[in-house]
Known about the structure:
With 1190 residues, the protein is mostly helical. Helix content is 64%, strand content 6%.
Amino acid sequence: MRGELVGERxxxxxxxxxxxxxxxxxxxxxxxxxxxxxxxxRLTALVKADRDDVKARYCLGWIYLSRFPGLPEEEARIxxxxxxxxxxxxxxxxxxxxxxxxxxxxxxxxxxxxxxxxHTAVLxxxxxxxxxxxxxxxxxxxxxxxxxxxxxxDHDLPSYLNHLGTTLTGLYRLNEDPDTLDAAIDAFERASxxxxxxxxQRAVALGSLRDALxxxxxxxxxxxxxxxxVEAARxxxxxxxSSDTGDRNRARLADQLRGLADMFQKNAEGEDDxxxxxxxxxxxxRQKAADLGSDDDLRGARRWESYASALxxxxxxxxxxxSLDAAISAYERALEGTATGEDERAELMxxxxxxxxxxxxxxxxxxxxxxYTELIRQSLATTTDAVDAARYRGNLAVALLVTxxxxxxxxxVDTAVDMARRALADLPPGHPAExxxxxxxxxxxxxxxxxxxxxxxxxxxxELGQASATASEDLPKQAQRVANLAFxxxxxxxxxxxxxxxxxxxxxxxxxxxACPEGDSTRFLLLGHLAQLLMMRYRAEGxxxxxxxxxxxxxxxxxAVSASPRHGExxxxxxxxxxxxxxxxxxxxxxADLDQAIECFRKGRSRLPIPALxxxxxxxxxxxxxxxxxRADRASAVRxxxxxxxxxxFPPTARIMAAREGARLQAASSRPVASDLxxxxxxxxxxxxxxxxxxxxxxxxxxxxxxxxxDAAALTLADRTxxxxxxxxxxxxxxxxxxxVLLSQALETRTDLTELGSEHRELADRYVALCTELERGSxxxxxxxxxxxxxxxEQIRALPGFASFGLPTRGEDLVAQARGGHLVxxxxxxxxxxxxxxTPKGVRTVRxxxxxxxxxxxxxxxxxxxxxxxxxxxxxxxxxxxxLARILRHLHHRATRPALxxxxxxxxPRKGLPLPRVWWAPGGRxxxxxxxxxxxxxxxxxxxxxAVMDRVISSYTPTIGALQHARQRAARAPSLPDRALVxxxxxxxxxxxxxxxxxxxxxAALVRGLLPDPVLLCEPGLFTGPSAVAADLPxxxxxxxxxxxxTISHFVCHGTSDPANPSRSRLILQDPDxxxxxxxxxxxxxxxxxxxxxxxxxxxxTAGTELLDESIHLTSAFQLAGFPHVIGNLWEASDGVAQxxxxxxxxxxxxxxxxxxxxxxxxxxxAVQEIRSDNPDHPFLWAGYLHAGA
Length: 1190
């Protein structure tokens, strides 16, 4: 309190004490005057927030109590309630230096005791939830004070004793002090002894006594305690279920609570039965208060509605729940008096529903939720006005959003969004309700974006929020809209990873705080959100002032919510502050910051009601403990992360992240545990990507798990508790699961789920729905969802043919694919690097000791730069070519040579013997290098020529499952005659003339002459003179229409890879605005396809670094979409070389009966060999060509 205020307090306190002391001589006029009341109200305002100022409260209590007899009934009741409220802290504080002997008037002691009991019950409940022993000890002290002050014959003494015992039991669970438990047992025994034998509450006390005795038996192993606990249970069973005594007790309790309505709402924030009783009793009293407070003028429905509206507005400004309760009662009274007038009645029902919605947001009482939904539906059915119907529909949309968002009910949010859109469309332009409806729609889109990570929803939410944020001068509404806009802008900035979007969000966030009145129930939310925004900008831009501001704002938010703590809200404030403090520790290394952060996380964890936030807090706490680094801290961190990874109620995404961190901590000391953690995480991958998302949103979700399967496989291979053979098979299965699931989801190809859908559609739909619910972490329903998901998996696996549903492919099924040729699956991880060699005999691990994750990264970076230098006019192409050759030699030494040696391919086969085939599955970063071209080139031929292409014929596959899919397609007989599609485009619209591909016409003409019944799609004028031919344009639409009817498709045009979004890697055709992308191929039925030849740049390349495990490029897209054989290129193709390779390739696959795609791998190998023999020191020209598929 500032100095001038302290002085004013002292003056007021002296004046009021003087008035009290003057009563014996001068009478009660000293305290009844308006001046006395003004002094009391001013002092009350000064000490309102300071419960420890018992001296002032004691004086004020006597002032209000002394005024009580001389006031009218209603004013007297208020004065008495105020006196009780002021005396309670004095009673609970006990003797202090200021008040060494507090003496409270006997007339108010029963009320003081009841009020003190309510305060203490709330403190005990909150302390129990927070596992706070100090808070429980304080609550126990308070209960002892209350018990000692209660007369022996008071009807409330048993209840107080029972509460004392319960609090002491909770404290014992934390401090394990035997004396604490003994005191609890004594309290329960006294409670049961003083209760009437037919009082139902006696059974509660005896049940608690039973539990406490069992706790003591667990410690002492005393038979007497065990016997006594059994006896207590028997006596509890003998208590009648209902009785007159119980009814009288409940009636008496209701009567006593009538003067404590405000306290009910402050203290009844839990979800237990007692809190619900408090809420219900409080509402009953407030309805009567509205009746008593009305005067003769408040008659008729319109007057009651006006009164209700005023009360509601006061609630909007002050968050005064008593006003809102009174408003609801008044709306009810108005509605009761409206017998006629459909539109008037509809309007009243809508107004009452809006008020009930606000109360539900404060109290979460299900009855309010059901009532407001039904009222709005009735108002829609009653009104005859279309515009009013639109307004009501907008309100119903918000009401549905409130409940659906709390339950993470995506279907409900979808319905609400659709309803809000309709309401907005039905309102006339410029209607006063337009901004409200627009704001509601923005809210719904934001909720949905949070649930399913939809970028489009986040963008639209911001657009709508900006349009509605300044549309009203109504302060509460404006604050709410500005807050909604700030939340939406934050979400968009997070989703797009564009920190520039944070500046307007922070500005809006500050405006929202400024517009929100002090004491408003949403103020701490706005402060907390502003702190989050500042933290985000600090991470993006590194402004120290933002970090300090975030901590200061976070402390304000914590103080605001602590003044009236609610379970989840206090947890959120603690979580946010902890994050900011931990961040500052990382910058300044002040141990105090780290200790405070740990304390915030520990306290916040138990106060977060949403599983997704709980697991996030667990992960942060684990990180902070690891940083502090004591042995105990590290052990606690591991336990936290292991629990988070195993928690079925937590979202799969969070579980995977926790498993990853837990494995990192355990990798050095306990590899089996680390291996198991990541193995389970890989199995969760199918559940993290909702299938309703747009492709961009799917990839955003997928990208956070890049490298997970590689780490899981690496730790499995390092787990020496398993035999080498089992290690290798398990690692291979994990790689297959981690890569195959993501590929299948991203490219919409066949998976276990699509097979399930073709035979059991309802089960497949339910599986998808539960996956989505689990990923959201659906509040209190998370446990039920997890159980339902496990039961559904068991049900599916019991079906014929689905025993392995959702599990990694069996090892024997993977090994079976090696019968058609050996496979080498590379694994590059920060833990270790290996090649898994798959032969018909099994799986063998080849440790690549010369290879590391960082080495591969450096090789890729150098190689990519050299590729760019080969075509850069300002660079020396000879130097660039030599760099490429050097990397190819390193790659052979460190990766391909050990793998080939393990297969027995350590030299060139004897003359006359065909080269063996090998399929490479490089995965990750290694997939950016030409594995098939590794080695020494330009060396004199000999038996031990050191180059992969001199020893084997190479093919690629993203996964073994994809290879199996390609082989199955290749084995099918085409249902249509052989036909070819040739797509040729030399000049691409939108690209400069220098980008013209000069050899396109020659290559296209050559291919047309070699392929059966060709369909030509080419640009106008490509062929002139005798070779001129009529052809359709090479547009994406024409290509997609012709692909299904052709067995061979040849593309000669520009191609490009997209590093930001691999699914947008594309062949650039006549319509550049709609190129042929990876994602465009997904829905095409190409069952007759056999070969796709992509004579374009970068069709087998995955640029960027976040989705390398996915192998998302055009070559794999054609393969997984049904082409058993695909020819692609890792980088830019040389025009002339491309034509020569195409000519030799088709010559190599052509037989008397026509083209045989089965010869594709060997034919491409020979064509590239021929180019290499002419240009051995120029790998840029030939090393990029590859074959993928069967």
